[in-house]
Amino acid sequence: xxxxxxxxxxxxxxxxxxxxxxxxxxxxxxxxxxxxxxxxxxxxxxxxxxxxxxxxxxxxxxxxxxxxxxxxxxxxxxxxxxxxxxxxxxxxxxxxxxxxxxxxxxxxxxxxxxxxxxxxxxxxxxxxxxxxxxxxxxxxxxxxxxxxxxxxxxxxxxxxxxxxxxxxxxxxxxxxxxxxxxxxxxxxxxxxxxxxxxxxxxxxxxxxxxxxxxxxxxxxxxxxxxxxxxxxxxxxxxxxxxxxxxxxxxxxxxxxxxxxxxxxxxxxxxxxxxxxxxxxxxxxxxxxxxxxxxxxxxxxxxxxxxxxxxxxxxxxxxxxxxxxxxxxxxxxxxxxxxxxxxxxxxxxxxxxxxxxxxxxxxxx
Length: 364
Ligand SMILES: Nc1ncnc2c1ncn2[C@@H]1O[C@H](COP(=O)(O)OP(=O)(O)OP(=O)(O)O)[C@@H](O)[C@H]1O
Ligand SMILES: [Mg+2]
Hints:
Elements: H1 29-41, E1 48-51, H2 58-67, E2 76-80, H3 86-94, E3 95-96, E4 108-109, H4 111-114, E5 119-123, H5 130-142, E6 144-145, E7 154-155, E8 159-164, H6 168-173, H7 179-185, E9 188-191, H8 202-217, E10 222-223, H9 225-233, H10 239-253, E11 257-258, H11 260-264, E12 277-278, E13 284-285, H12 290-305, H13 308-315, H14 319-327, H15 357-363
Parallel strand pairs: 1-8, 1-9, 2-5, 5-8, 10-11
Antiparallel strand pairs: 3-4, 6-7, 12-13
Helix pairs in contact: 8-10, 12-13, 12-14, 13-14, 14-15
Adenosine-5'-triphosphate is lined by residues 24-26, 52, 54-60, 165, 208, 240-241, 244, 310.
């Protein structure tokens, strides 16, 4: 029976105590399946591929695997393959010797070596450039790596957990991912469901994130049952990260009371300067010029996803494109600048919708 059904309709939802260790919460069958799989494969030395949309808990799953493995006392090293510039990726993974390239002032151990005896988490593995995929495959096959500038292979012993939000078979079909590497990484696959497919877990998760928000802010947090009902209807493109951020935001804006509006209606940037309309499903549609409407909607996606990077993944567009759209839209009229010949500063264009400095910075 749902804890909600045993309470008066308007009684606040009781909070769970925050879970101290890395634990994937959720009681829906898909989550039970994922946890069972994690427990089963944790003691093994083989590669595990964790798949799921952004914010579904892939890194948390990797940490659970490490914590439940015999390697738990050795390092857990996480590398985001999508965030390393291509020319540094090889050195980041395999290390380099002093003088191997300009700027290599001293020897550096790569992630494989730093994770010796422990777990190497290769996040967004689908973003690795193809030449490096070949070298990664070799490292997995023979258990050695060749640091950049070295002549001798180095023995490595790291258990590999890889994660991706992409559909790897499609990437293989498009020639962007090596099929043999996918087979090597996906010896065991753990699939994490999106939040919209596990709405039965929403109440538990909101209570958990509210307890975290209470601990982080020091303000007692209560959750209106209507907020749970609204969260169940919401789409949550940023999945658990989106929900976690939304609970924190709603708690702070509501002086500790998480309401349905606070949880689901808006992103962190006020769109109050618009004459908003409410669309289907309670979605707030900002009014204004097309460009400013587009930006307001994108800002909501960023808010739910938790970062520009995650939002770009949700929208499946390059991060730089999203950053540029958020800062200013070329379609939007710009003021004339006094100094001729100067490049226009996008962030300087007046906007009814102030862009946080963080967003402006990304666009440049
Ligand atoms: N099942 C869960 N129970 C409790 N917290 C969770 C769960 N899944 C995810 N979280 C929390 O949600 C946030 C996002 O999780 P995580 O970083 O593991 O997602 P991810 O799939 O790696 O995201 P991305 O693809 O964007 O890197 C973290 O704060 C994590 O602790
Ligand atoms: Mg992650």
